[in-house]
Amino acid sequence: MYHLLKGLHEYLTRKDEFSVIIIGLDGAGKTTLLEKIKTMYNDTPGLPPDKIAPTVGQNIGKIALPSAVLQFWDLGGQRGIRTIWPKYYGDCHAVVYVVDAVDHERLSEGWEVFDAVLSAPQILGVPLLLLANKQDRSGSLSVAEIRNNYEVWYQHKIESARRRQGSELDNEQRRERIASLDVMGLSALEGTGVRAIVDWVFIRVQNSKRRDESS
Ligand SMILES: Nc1nc2c(ncn2[C@@H]2O[C@H](COP(=O)(O)OP(=O)(O)OP(=O)(O)O)[C@@H](O)[C@H]2O)c(=O)[nH]1
Ligand SMILES: [Mg+2]
Fold first, then answer.
1. pTM of structure
2. Name one GO biological process term (predicted).
3. Is 188 touching ligand 1 by the criterion CB < 6 Å?
4. Has residue 215 got a pLDDT over 60?
């Protein structure tokens, strides 16, 4: 009887676990975000910002919400490390792409990388969130400016590809994805915007196509 009740209790209180990858250029603030999420949601606080070094490989953080567990994978963003990202695409339930909204000079490099992420077939149906980080700093681009900057970059890319012939880039799926792209602002350092991001992830992974595939 005990085992039956225990089994029933475990079944009723079972929490689905979802994997979320956090990617973006080096220095965008991915680890700062992960550690802030840990601090805000766990009893054991994450690392303070001054103890965070550039990521060589990955960092992992887990948080338990009332009805789900989110496992975050913060992947190093340095050029040589980005090659590991696709290894995580097959198993993730959501993708969070972080942009440094202050570093105007590296925005196009960030879009090049983001564009490759968008076109990865393994994550076509997976919820994707674009984050404009460092909103606490003066000179940071707003959410609307970041979205616009990406759209302008993308149009430019399509036009130059067309000029070079072949409009292969301008595919329907990609355009739909960009049109429905969610962009949110935050300060990973101060924690503003972080709860809204976790809520977004929580809601979107529940409805993720991949969830149905894996259950
Ligand atoms: N002002 C400000 N600085 C931030 C914020 N988020 C991160 N930083 C700073 O940006 C720098 C890089 O942050 P990291 O979290 O290490 O960046 P990362 O994206 O993990 O970089 P890699 O591990 O190399 O891929 C650090 O000096 C952080 O303190 C933010 O919201 N505001
Ligand atoms: Mg890092």
1. 0.92
2. Golgi to plasma membrane protein transport
3. yes
4. no
